[in-house]
Design brief:
With 315 residues, the chain is α+β, with helices and mostly antiparallel strands. It folds into 2 domains: 2-170, 2-Layer Sandwich (Ribosomal Protein S5, domain 2), CATH 3.30.230.10; 177-308, Alpha-Beta Plaits (2-Layer Sandwich), CATH 3.30.70.890. The chain is 40% helix and 26% strand. It contains 9 helices and 12 strands. It has helices at 68-80, 103-118, 128-139, 147-154, 189-203, 205-228, 231-247, 253-264, 290-299, and strands spanning 2-13, 24-40, 44-49, 53-58, 61-62, 86-93, 157-161, 167-170, 177-182, 269-273, 280-285, 303-308. The strands form 2 sheets. Strands 1, 2, 3, 4, 5, 6, 7 and 8 form an 8-stranded mixed sheet that branches. A 4-stranded antiparallel sheet has the order 10-11-9-12. Strand 3 (44-49) and strand 4 form a beta hairpin. Helix 2 (103-118) packs across helix 3, helix 3 packs across helix 4 (147-154) and helix 5 crosses helix 6. The protein is globular. The two termini are 15 Å apart.
């Protein structure tokens, strides 16, 4: 039995705009998906997970349509590397599903990590994007930047841009503390990425363009502030990013409540992360304010997670 794990992610800057070519800053978070994997003599793929359910692919027939993408990933990798065996996987996750913490990317990465370890494929972390982006796009309804794959595979803090071409700037290690507030409101990424934002662009193209351009400015300022270690400025810029996301209709009253109480309790900055319209928000804090901010977010009705960001990718 081989084991692999990969972290979820939080967006410090740039979610949604990154799907349209703008840069983003994303950090891995110390909540992981773990995959146990072993080979089977027959060409059969079995997946079991307390969080995701169970699925089997046998003789090209799937018994679970909602997990087809995971079965297809295994099948495609085995075929690509001409492996004449099957696999059995057990997947466990610390990451709340459909919350904006990139659980789907972490699952994809952990499966690829497990297959690579089991069959000694030696797939480099930097190549995970190329292997997995097509599956991520299916999960997100056809649109996805794939930055979450990069972060989950490589870990740490990353500034990712796409013009001209994909560029990844690793930002180093930073002792940032965060408090995550989970609204408990589950929304599919495809709802906001495939449906909501494209409709908004069609209805209000100039407004959306201005918002994405402003997010790009904030992301670039955020990069400068992170490299300078200016945590006060980072927090201020994150909060400005949140205001624009709210203007775009991507926030939610419960997210707004979490952000507001976090700022009142002394957080440097706070914003939603990921798809929005539910899911999670994060507050940037220091050691002295972390517990106070966590209590405030909990009193506001959100589930609190205190954790680290910028952690190792593939394990």
């Amino acid at each position: 039995m081989n084991r692999a794990s990969n972290p979820g992610n939080l967006f410090l800057f740039g979610e949604h705009a990154v799907v349209y070519g703008k840069p983003a800053i994303i950090a891995s978070v110390d909540l992981r998906v773990r995959c146990q994997i072993k080979s089977l003599p027959e060409k059969e793929i079995k997946i079991s997970s307390r969080e995701l359910g169970n699925a089997v692919l046998k003789r090209h027939k799937r018994d679970r349509k909602d997990l087809f993408i995971l079965l297809d990933l295994c099948k495609d990798i085995l075929s690509q590397f001409k492996i004449q065996k099957g696999v059995e996987l057990k997947i466990e996750s610390d990451i709340p599903v459909a919350s904006g913490l990139s659980s789907s990317s972490a699952v994809l990465c952990s499966i690829l990590s497990g297959l690579s370890k089991l069959f000694k494929l030696n797939i480099p972390n930097k190549d995970y994007y190329n292997y997995l982006i097509k599956y991520q796009r299916v999960i997100h309804g056809g649109r996805a930047s794939g930055v979450e794959i990069i972060s989950s595979a490589q870990g740490g803090f990353n500034y990712i841009s796409f013009k001209p071409g994909l560029k990844i700037k690793k930002l180093g290690d930073f002792p940032f503390r965060v408090v995550i507030g989970d609204t408990g409101i589950k929304t599919k990424t495809s709802k906001t990425v495939k449906e909501f934002i494209p409709k908004l662009i069609k209805k209000r193209p100039l407004f959306t363009k201005r918002c994405f351009n402003k997010i790009e400015e904030l992301t670039k300022e955020g990069l400068k502030s992170i490299l300078e270690g200016d945590i006060l400025k980072i927090g201020k810029l994150m909060t400005e990013n949140q205001k624009i996301l709210a203007k775009l209709g991507l926030s939610h009253p419960k997210l707004d409540r979490g952000v507001n109480v976090a700022l009142e309790a002394g957080a440097y900055g706070a914003k939603l992360s990921g798809k929005g319209q539910g899911g999670v928000m994060l507050a940037l804090v220091n050691k002295d304010s972390q517990k106070r901010v966590a209590k405030a977010i909990k009193r506001a009705g959100l589930k609190v997670i205190q954790t680290k960001i910028g952690v190792t990718g593939v394990k």
